[in-house]
Each structure stands twice: as C-alpha cells, then as structure tokens.
C-alpha cells in the first residue's frame, strides 16, 4: 500500500493546508525581501546622487580657478559616508582633476568620466554627475560606493524566514 493510503483524510487535509500556507508565507517573504532590496538600492542612489550634485555645485569655483587642492577638500566630504570608497572630479578634458580614495577600496575607478547616471556593477554603485555652470559642462563628479550592507540584509531576511518556519 502507498503511504498516502495509510493517512486519514483529516491528516491529508491538514498537510495540504500546512503546505499551502507554507508556500504562501515563503512567497510573501520573498516579495518583501525583493521590495526591500529594490528600495534599498533606490535610496542609496538618491542619497549619493544628491551628495555628488552638492559636491559638484560647491566645486565650480575651484574648478574655474584651476585649484585641485580646493576641489580635493570638497571631495573629502565623502569621509562622512563610510560606504563611499572613491570619488573623483574630472575636468572638461576628461582628466582627473582631484580624487578621494578611502583605504580598502576594492575596485579601480574609471580613468575617464562616463555619461551621467547610476550604474550597479557587482557589489558596487557607480554614480556620474555632470557639473554644470551657466548651462555649460565644466566637469564630472564620480562616486563609487560599496553595497556591503545588502548581503547583510539578505542574511537577516533569511534568518527571519527560518525563524518563522521553525515555529
């Protein structure tokens, strides 16, 4: 005889209900985790893009005066952001005008600016923002941030899901 034939109808119904509930709960957890990851990435992009634009705006005078030391001081504001590994300002010729680099940065920054935008690559976020003054591009800000907090969030979600299912 089959195993299913030995189980009572009530027990079969209970197993089906438990399995259906478990699948629904797992699906809900996956949806919440996906939503959190997307939101986390969007918030990081928004926050660092705003900082890049502020640093770029504050650097216009020093760029015009050809003062890399002053621009470097502007970039040092990224020290307050522990996830920012590298930031640079490129001049209109695409050359590095000033740079900031935190010890322990994992990726080599690009030697030339790219089009304005935000790019995810591996476990890093790369942001390029043009510096515009009087309608003219006078440079580009680059910010590279580690997304080390993302795997930790996923581990926390997995731990929560395992805790819920162990009840």
Keywords:
167 residues; 5-stranded antiparallel beta sheet; alpha+beta; 5 strands; 5 helices; rod-shaped
Describe what this molecule looks like in 3D.
There is one protein chain. This protein is of the alpha+beta class. Helix content is 51%, strand content 23%. The chain has helices spanning 3-6, 9-58, 60-64, 68-75, 149-166; strands at 84-90, 96-101, 117-121, 124-133, 136-146. A hairpin with a 5-residue loop joins strand 1 and strand 2. The longest helix is centred in the first third of the chain and has 50 residues, at 9-58. The protein is rod-shaped, with a radius of gyration of 25 Å. The mean pLDDT is 86.
| Succession of helices and strands | HHHHEEEEEH
Number of helices: 5
- The Rg value, from CA coordinates, equals 25 Å
Main beta sheet, described? 5 strands, antiparallel
User: Low-confidence runs (pLDDT<50, min 5 residues)?
Assistant: none
Question: How are the strands ordered across the major sheet?
Answer: 2-1-5-4-3
Nearest-integer average pLDDT: 86
The rough form would be described as rod-shaped
Total strand count, please? 5
Ends apart, CA distance between termini: 33 Å
* Helix/sheet category: alpha+beta
Share of β-strand residues: 15-25%
Helix content: 40-55%
């Amino acid at each position: 005889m089959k195993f299913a034939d030995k189980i009572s109808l009530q027990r079969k119904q209970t197993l089906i209900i438990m399995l259906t509930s478990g699948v629904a709960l797992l699906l809900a957890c996956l949806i919440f985790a996906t939503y959190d990851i997307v939101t986390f990435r969007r918030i990081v992009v928004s926050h660092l893009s705003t900082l890049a634009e502020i640093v770029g705006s504050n650097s216009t005078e020093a760029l015009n005066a050809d003062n890399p030391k002053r621009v470097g001081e502007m970039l040092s504001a990224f020290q307050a952001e522990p996830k920012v590994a590298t930031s640079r300002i490129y001049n209109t010729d695409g050359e590095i005008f000033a740079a900031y680099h935190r010890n322990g940065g994992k990726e080599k920054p690009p030697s030339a600016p790219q089009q304005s935008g935000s790019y995810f690559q591996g476990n890093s976020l790369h942001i390029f923002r043009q510096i515009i003054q009087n309608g003219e591009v006078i440079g580009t800000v680059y910010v590279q941030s580690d997304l080390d907090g993302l795997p930790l969030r996923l581990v926390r979600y997995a731990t929560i899901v395992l805790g819920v299912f162990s009840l």
